[in-house]
Design brief:
Protein name (chains A, B, C): Beta-galactosidase
Oligomer: homotrimer
CATH topology of the largest domain in chain A: TIM Barrel
Number of domains of chain A: 3
Pfam families (chains A, B, C): Glyco_hydro_42 (PF02449), Glyco_hydro_42C (PF08533), Glyco_hydro_42M (PF08532)
CATH architecture of the largest domain in chain A: Alpha-Beta Barrel
CATH superfamily of the largest domain in chain A: Glycosidases
Number of helices of chain A: 16
GO biological process, one term (chains A, B, C): galactose metabolic process
CATH class of the largest domain in chain A: Alpha Beta
Keywords (chains A, B, C): Glycosidase, Hydrolase, Metal-binding, Zinc
EC number (chains A, B, C): 3.2.1.23
Shape of chain A: globular
Largest interface: A-B, 55 and 53 residues
Chain lengths: 677, 677, 677
């Protein structure tokens, strides 16, 4: 049987999570649901995710007919099914019969039954029960023509500190370091007399034990990812062993740093994620950009279209404030996913639960249950839009620009103790760089240190505290061969065991950069400095910008200094430098700069490097992306302002395939253009 | 023996908590205390509450003579005694000999000995020891002519998660739901695969287990109340079995939501509570109103005079800031209790402890120990006032207005997850409504969903999220028969298992209201909207008011729209409606309005419904109430402003029985008038 | 062998913590270190502190040659060694083999291996292992001519609640109170029925048990100090039993209230501490004064020169913000220690660790490893300065002024519950008084209630809530004999078991003060009052000052009233009084006053009492101290302003021995003058 890693369905997916098992005693409800689905162009539902206690009400006693019936009925009505495995929430009996499946927290307390996403990933008892039910689902439904995708568990996350996990962790360390001496050396355990004599002495980090050995913390996080990937692999194998070769995904969370999602690449055929932005908390364009970065991260994982697996059709119930989405936002957000490479706009949830913790979460069909709701009407609009945009399905998103944002670096950076324990602006710096790139209207890949750099023209590298995976060599080669890099302060400080490099830093790149770091100053929250441009600098920068939080002091050997500090004892020292190395150029930003700095810097660098942009001028608040197939090229334009804005659409070469092209682009509206061949 | 549910004492009680066991080795102190009491018109003391380790220094070895001696001595001096049972704090030996009496917290940790109010209510060992000592006290002192009231324990509260309580909880659930299937159905356990197969699988809520199953949380709180009531009943039975038939009370806490105090109705002969307002933190009138609402709640419990059981004669020691009360506040606060139906003004405490956690709590007699203290002098003034007002004792407080403020609704509402997790304004809305009512100078009952509605003219119903106890039927009948209701947003959402009603909401009242809810918008803290009046609305409202936090969107079928939103996408939708139903009218407030809105609305409704008021105009900051006996009617007027205010006292028909009636009412002063027959 | 309690080295010490065991596999690094040391005038290193797992890699298997080699090599190069005992961090094997050495926290949870400073002080197993290694170190190195000082453990602190400690605590209590009846009496356990029948029932304070019995809390803190002192004594005895009679110290922490450092007097030959001020967070002079108070406290412990044992040569890594020190601050801070009686300026650390929690902490030699760092250059400047100031070594610091700041009082005061639980300004009041004193340029001793008072002229006593150790008698005698006291509000409230005094307070001093306390008012954070001067008051005070937080009300019998409250119901009551008693005077400050009040009060009192000052006028921001030997007298002047200030140096009688005396004193610069004989 040949494995197909893509969904065999020539539509953009529209639908979402559906829990018919909550309504089995109300067939009239299920009947009504189908009507709603059909009217709203729903073509896919996701089932099974929290159905374990209905699928297997007693240990070994399965009850799957109801699910087959749903899948059949949907299929007969042209609706496809994404089949979830139920491991995200176990039945009561499973916890009672096999207590080892219950997680132990960092304080070494075994949890009680409750909530969800809280099983031990190592427990063989759990793995066995998961394997059994996954195989059964695969066998009974895996080859059903209505099933288009298998969905592993739900939002994998968290860690377990039980004895089984401790033992596995020690094995993993042994595999990594071979000898305890090597572990001691890499972890620098001589500090505070922590030398291990034996792998058996290693314990996972704990507030009642060790929390300050950074390499232990880092390796524990790596192990948790590895063990979770192993669990996902196990789930997948059960599906394959059950005879199902359909593509497999799991739903990731936005900006989640509990796991290094990059490590799931091998397990997944398709990447997917759950997007729950807090619309209307900040200006909509800011929320849109933060969401876009997540979309781009998910697309960059497998470098192909991903799925928006969950999103709320109205408000969530678990954010501080359940804010209603203003009219038009649902469609704008759904089409933004498509604009960034998604082949779907799916919801959590199709019908609201009656009780328990998410009963007030938004849904396509609410407790009221009528069609005359604003939410349902907007869902219908999305359904219509997706149908009109069918040809976008499967198209790619080419990018010559990459932002390097690395999860392992994030772990180490945030854990480092110093130079600012009250806030290290890693995410913030990446966000500012990303926003600056988006203002240029170019597609952006979000990559990590393990990725190949050579295919890009420009790479932005915020705060790369840790150098691993040969990144310093890759950066050197990239620049040498003509690439452009913008790198910032606090890069190249530690190796992959979070151990400081001796000698000049950013380690092994000081000749490429034409400078070395001497000190780094932490600023109190209320402090700031200013960067002022040097006369006749090579980028013609001519404004002042504020710096906060961190100001690095460097000693320049070869680089051009473009901007300098305005005050403090390091007045006159460089804030921005540029060094020509080989055929390329590398910029170094010494301080935590305000967003306007990055916007102007990137605009100037784009001009210098002659980067192509879809529009010569994009008004603030407007988002532009492109998607490409072998034959066609599409331009997607969205206005995230609360007012209409004027925009110079291309006069020729493009035809409108969605929305209305006029002199003004309406608030929260989308226009899709196709290049005329 | 005939049970007397009232205190046989024709005085307003003055006195309070007294711990002579702390001074048994200083007879001169006890002698001095008596002198102080007599000079201050103290006529009652409360003893025994924390005396267990003196009363029973060793398991089964009692030592009660000292207590009898105190009671005798007081009685001989005309001072009566309230006899407390000592269950609020157990002796050390009891915890050592019977470890099961120590509570287990939600994290399943057995507590050590310490503090107080922390015994397991289920433990038979504890119950047995409590029964023994209560019976002994009843036998030895219960029929002493000096004893006028039995006082159970102290400030019942908290919960215990020990195995004994878990077992009892399961029994309680079985009693409630009969079958596990029914529990699953009502709790909606299919969500997140939580189906129970057996009552044995149920565990109380725990941060290390389940916290998100709302129906479980709600039933746990109900069970805790039930078990506490059962414990109180057990204590009472021991007293009765000891041969004492005197009235029984227990001291409640202000605005405490750990227990549903309504469920104690059957146990108590007299309601009483401990009032500790933070005077001078807010404007005094605001503190006075918040306190008044608690008084009214306590009075409404048994619909008869209650007791102010504790209050501080000066500052407390456990609030953030131990603020001194300004001169006159002690008397004003004491008489405010009387004004709202109390037959007492009692203090914690008569004499300050020398050491331990409350050593710095205010007392009638302080460590200094002289009579020349400001506090003692003010206590004497209160004593004098109470003596002058003796005839108020036992008089009732008739009210045609009720505020429905329901503890179970509060539990469900605060636990609901959505639409605002950072603050649901239930208490705040009730407070604003109550303040608006108090500005009219009318008496107010504070009732819950189990109360009878039909005797009122107007009922105010803030945020009645949960409908239970047939409240929707009672409201319908009340309006139909000519009553007036003011109901707010977020009413009628869930049933008594916290499960959402399907169909139109407020459930089963949409025809009465002439509208249905469509959506509810959560506002961020910094956001607001405005309600603007419709021209020629039937209440002639003509001002604008601010709304915050929550804005409900409704679809009107029949109701009159009186005010609308000024902005956002729901601009023009109703904020205030009124519907005529049967002979009555029901108003619906869609948003969380500022206090001025309720003040103006209620003034307008009072005018429309021709509600009688004692004064045509009451200056801001002045409190007015009435008390009535079969023969007489009293008008109590208090000025809570820091300045004197002008007030038009009735020119005839009334005589002054306390205070001075002049053109101005002094700051913090009280005048009591009696209707001339 | 005669014990020498002073270091036999005629230099001011310069150097610090050094961990060569982290670099044993890099001899080139160790070689380089020595070069660095010599160039920077480093004359001492501290070793051994966290070396246990290298010194004893397996239970009973020692490996000490590397350490001897380091000491030898240093000695051969003129560098001396402070030898630390390694008890601050145990090896992994020790925790595994003897689990009783792991602390149990207040929640009764045994900790896992990890971090440091976390051994049970009671465990005999731990004591035995510590004794063995200390004896070995003493034997092998104790008489090495390069070893000048023994350094016990590192920053003793924390507590352990294990069964061994509980048993020891009970023994300690039995020793203190003899009978359980006496304990009950002193602790006032009748309150809340807490009477103990037996010492066996006593448990240490716990959040899951008792936290509110103040006398228990207080005695637990005393016990923890006693047990820690006992442990230090045990460590010392092992050194002595190992044949080493050299002086002994341990490094204290700044403003640490976990231990009563005064109780270590008998154990230590030399006091030392670790100074980590947050430079540049507040105005530098404020940081300097707060640091100076710690220096003075350490000097006052043994009334002789102390050591600055640790300080960061640049930023720390564990404060919120790792702020760089501005140029000059390192030298100013180092010389400030000297100015206040230190005979050293030592650093943590000589070379930065590569990994683990303190890898980013500042060091003399950083990861870069070159000499051309700003930090190293400034360290060299310090080395040079210390060499020039060699003659200051061993000189004393005479003081006629004392500030009484008592740790046990602090414990009781902060634990008291009332009158302000959201902040009692003990430290703040002491800081304000100290700053006022420093503005006068006089030396100040920081003493406690156990100290002798009679040698001082003026004693400042902030908030002496607890009276113990006969302090009321000592104060009476001191004033009677002509001394001047400035005492504040909230003094003389409780005895040494935290039990309130009955009768007039401040207890047994009301006749000396000429007043008694009546009440104390807590102010909310946003409230304030004002003190206004009485006309013709004896100090000629003529300004208004703000009071906050606490306003005490007193009734004057004999005292002169100098200032009164401006508002509230206690308007006109005294804020400042003065009473002549015997030959002396005692001032009483009734409210928490702003710093300017203390500055003006102390200036006026100094004038009245004719206190000698080194300068008639000291500009704000300039620090002045004096040191004296039998023959010579030195005047040290430091400018902590960011700008140069004009200063009138003495025109004659003094010669400059360090720095430059000109009309202006440069920012962060120091001048040392020597009296010409």
């Amino acid at each position: 049987m040949q494995k197909n890693t893509n969904i065999r369905l020539e539509q953009l997916l529209h639908g979402g999570d559906y829990n018919p098992e909550q309504w089995l005693d109300s067939p009239e409800i299920l009947e009504k649901d189908l009507e709603f689905f059909l009217k709203a162009n729903i073509n896919v539902i996701t089932v099974g995710m929290f159905s374990w206690s209905v699928l297997e009400p007693e240990d070994g006693k399965y009850q799957i007919d109801w699910l087959i019936e749903i899948v059949n009925k949907m299929y007969q009505n042209g609706i496809y099914t994404i089949l979830g495995t139920p491991s995200g929430a176990r039945p009561q009996w499973l916890a009672k019969s096999y207590p080892e499946v219950l997680r132990v927290n960092a304080n070494r307390e075994r949890q009680l039954f409750g909530a969800r996403h809280n099983h031990c990933y190592t427990s063989l008892a759990y793995r066995k029960k998961v394997r059994d039910i996954n195989m059964l689902l695969a066998k009974e439904l895996g080859n059903h023509p209505g099933i288009i995708l298998l969905h592993l568990s739900n939002e994998y996350g968290g860690d377990c500190h039980c004895p089984l996990c401790q033992a596995k962790f020690r094995e993993w360390l042994k595999e990594r370091y071979k000898t305890i001496e090597e572990l001691n050396r890499r972890w620098n355990t001589t500090f505070w007399s922590h030398i291990y004599q034996d792998f058996e002495q290693v314990e996972s980090p704990s507030p009642k034990g060790e929390m300050l050995l950074h390499a232990l913390n880092l390796d524990w996080r790596r192990f948790v990812t590895a063990q979770t990937v192993d669990f996902a692999e196990w789930e997948k194998q059960a599906i394959r062993d059950g005879g199902c070769e359909k593509p497999i995904t799991t739903n990731f969370m936005g900006d989640y740093d509990g796991l290094n999602y990059r490590k799931f690449k091998e397990v997944l055929d398709i990447a997917s994620w759950d997007s729950y932005p807090e619309w209307h908390r900040k200006p909509e364009i800011q929320t849109a950009r933060e969401t876009a970065m997540q979309h781009d991260f998910m697309r960059s994982l497998l470098k192909k279209p991903f799925l928006l697996m969950e999103s709320s059709p109205s408000s969530t119930n678990w954010q501080d404030v359940s804010k209603l989405r203003k009219p038009g936002i649902l469609r704008a957000a759904s089409l933004q996913a498509i604009a960034h490479g998604s082949d779907s706009a799916l919801y959590f949830q199709m019908r609201q639960s009656k009780g328990a913790s998410e009963k007030l979460h938004g849904a396509v069909i609410d407790h009221y249950g009528g069609e005359d709701t604003r939410v349902y009407q907007e869902v219908c609009q999305v359904g219509k839009a997706l149908a009109e945009l069918t040809e976008l399905r499967g198209t790619k998103q080419n990018s010559k620009i990459a932002l390097l944002y690395d999860t392992e670096n994030r772990w180490a950076l945030m854990d480092a103790q110093g130079p600012r324990n009250c806030g290290m602006p890693y995410k913030e710096t990446a966000d500012k760089m990303y926003a600056a790139l988006r203002r240029q209207g170019v597609n952006v890949d979000v990559i990590d240190m393990e990725d190949v750099l050579k295919d890009y023209q420009i790479i932005l590298i915020p705060m790369l505290y840790m150098f691993r995976a040969g990144i310093e060599k890759k950066i050197r080669a990239f620049v040498e061969n003509g690439g452009t890099v913008i790198m910032t302060f606090w890069s190249g400080v530690v190796d992959d065991a979070d151990s400081c490099f001796l000698g000049e830093t950013p380690s092994k790149l000081t000749d490429v950069l034409g400078l070395r770091r001497t000190e780094i100053d932490g600023l109190y929250d209320e402090e700031e400095n200013t960067a002022i441009p040097k006369k006749n600098n090579s980028l013609s920068l001519n404004k002042k910008y504020t710096c906060r939080n961190l100001c690095e002091l460097v000693k320049v050997s070869d680089a051009e200094v473009l901007m300098t500090y305005e005050k403090d004892f390091y007045k006159g020292l460089p804030v921005l430098t540029c060094n020509q190395y080989g055929k390329g150029r590398i910029y170094y930003v010494c301080a935590d700069m305000e967003e306007a700095f990055y916007t102007d810097l990137i605009e100037a660098v784009f001009e210098k490097e002659k980067i192509e942009k879809p529009f010569s001028f994009i008004p603030e608040g407007v988002e532009v992306t492109t998607r490409q197939s072998k034959e066609d090229s599409y331009l997607i334009v969205q206005n995230f302002n609360r007012e209409a804005v004027a925009l110079d659409f291309p006069k020729s070469n493009y035809e409108v395939i969605y929305g209305t092209q006029s002199e003004k682009l309406d608030s929260f509206s989308t226009v899709v253009l196709k290049k005329v061949k």
